[in-house]
Amino acid sequence: MTVEFAFKKSPAYRVAYITWKGPWSDRRIQQKFDTLLAWTRDRHLRTGKWIFREPAERTWEVAIEVRGTAVPTAPIRLKTIPATSVASVVFDPDVVSSEVVYHALVDWLRWRRRDGKVRSVGGYREVYDGDPWRDPKVYARTDVQFAVRR
């Protein structure tokens, strides 16, 4: 499998989201996504992208893009993630290790900063086209994005 890094414009997303603090836990991330999914189904909302990110150290956020009008209920909130320029890589974690891809993307961006092609690099996020735990095709197209300022 070939892994290619690219700069692209990520669209704005209107999302329902949950945040929490603590150690990283795949099981907890999946539980939070399941909570969001149940909430969207109860309100008959159409869903889009699934987004996982770390907005601050040891602070986690899961979000599902929602289409339609909704009123937030605790612990679920609504917000719009603004459109932004990102450095992106789409890969299959079963073929290429996530650790290798993250490390390579960080190094690639470091060299782009030295070359003057990137002014600054922000936080990362993982973007999925659906549920990565229940759909192997979605998991096979994991999109890791770092916000960049060019």
User: What is the straight-line distance between the termini?
Assistant: 28 Å
Derived from helix and strand composition plus strand pairing, the structural class reads: alpha+beta
**CATH homologous superfamily heading:** Regulatory factor, effector binding domain
User: Regarding quaternary structure, how should these chains be classified?
Assistant: single chain
Using the alpha-carbon principal axes, give the shape: globular
Placed side by side, the strands forming the largest sheet appear as 1-6-8-7-3-4-2-5
Written as H for each helix and E for each strand, in order along the chain, the element string is EEHEEEEHEHE
Average pLDDT taken over every residue: 95
Helical residue percent? 25-40%
Number of separate structural domains: 1
- CATH topology annotation: Multidrug-efflux Transporter 1 Regulator Bmrr, Chain A
Radius of gyration: 16 Å
Total number of beta strands: 8
Low-confidence stretches: none
**CATH C-level:** Alpha Beta
Question: Layout of helices and strands, plus pairs?
Answer:
Elements: E1 5-10, E2 13-21, H1 26-42, E3 46-56, E4 59-67, E5 77-81, E6 84-91, H2 98-115, E7 120-128, H3 136-139, E8 142-149
Antiparallel strand pairs: 1-6, 2-4, 2-5, 3-4, 3-7, 6-8, 7-8
